[in-house]
Amino acid sequence: MSRTRRWLELRVGSPGASEPDPRLAEGLLALGGRAVEEREGAFLTHLPEPEELEDFLAGARRHLEAWVDGEPLSLDHRWQRHEDWATTWKRGLRTRRITPRLVVTPSWVPVEAGPREQVVVVDPGMAFGTAEHGTTRGALRLLDTAEPDGATVLDLGAGSGILSIAALLLGAVSATLVEGDELACEALRENLAANAVAERARVVEAWADATLLQQLGPHDLVLANVEWTKLRGLMEHLLGGVAPGGALVVSGLQHDDLASLGKVVAGRGFTEYARDIDEGWHSRLFRRPVDAGPGGPSAPPAPSGTSD
């Protein structure tokens, strides 16, 4: 397969508004954007080069207008060379201490770790997943809360590999990373090697579907930092992939997604164990009972925490 050598930079805004409608950010991710950045009153993302540009732009406009109930939009584009990305994605990245045990840093920023800290070194390249985004920070905090020591991990939409790397550094015995994007897989393999955890990781280069999730089987800890529009149809199969007594971390949620998520999770006997909100992005940690049958023992009680 040939590698894309340039990227379509798409910029969308809300004319006349002081800031763009936040629903547009989720719409860009659903369209296939790598990540979304707010810049100069608009949202910006990068997408693989489409075969027919004009048809794609027309479809993108219809798609995004549907996300904001038909409101008029400004939509601009330009091209960015793949080679230029090596400079672009470094902008603004820095070391972040996420929890008392987890520090995330790019490779060019040296970190002196404390005695209890694990340092996750991540260079995202064209993969989504840095500690600059609220969805990733929320997932990392809940992952730490889930106590992954000794667990088998399934990471759906692994992106840069940041979540699996953190879990492995915190003691997980193995991680299966599912990612369908060729360039993202290239980045996550490099990150696994840089953190010396590649031998305990398996990369599945495929887009997740029901069949694949069934084939992968149950895991002690399942991670899904995926927008709800893509995750909704997989939730039943994802829940089925959590081993009895295991945990599920779901991130990338908007407030309007929470009711739908809660309904499907409760229907399978899972209980909410912890929650996180960061810059408007919601994350949840659920536990599956050891025995979900009538009269069976339930999951550990949820700790008291801050409600959204």
Overview of the structural elements:
The chain has 308 residues and is an alpha/beta fold. The chain has 2 domains: 83 residues, Alpha-Beta Plaits (2-Layer Sandwich); 192 residues, Vaccinia Virus protein VP39 (Rossmann fold), CATH 3.40.50. The chain has 10 helices and 14 strands. The strands form 3 sheets. The protein has a 7-stranded mixed β-sheet, with helices on both faces. Strands 2-3-1-4 form a 4-stranded antiparallel β-sheet, with helices on one face. Helix 4 runs parallel beside helix 5. The radius of gyration is 19 Å and the shape is globular. The termini are far apart.
In a few lines, what is going on in this structure?
By secondary structure, this protein is an alpha/beta fold. The chain contains 10 helices and 14 strands. The chain folds into 2 domains: 6-88, Alpha-Beta Plaits, CATH 3.30.70.240; 96-287, 3-Layer(aba) Sandwich (Rossmann fold).
How are the SSEs placed, and which strands pair?
Blueprint (H helix, E strand, L loop, with lengths): L5 E8 L9 H9 L5 E3 L2 E7 L4 H15 L6 E8 L3 H4 L7 E2 L4 E4 L12 E4 L12 H12 L6 E5 L5 H8 L4 E5 L3 H13 L6 E4 L5 H7 L2 E7 L2 H4 L3 H6 L1 E12 L4 H10 L3 E8 L2 E7 L21
Parallel strand pairs: 6-7, 8-9, 8-11, 9-10, 11-12
Antiparallel strand pairs: 1-3, 1-4, 2-3, 5-6, 12-14, 13-14
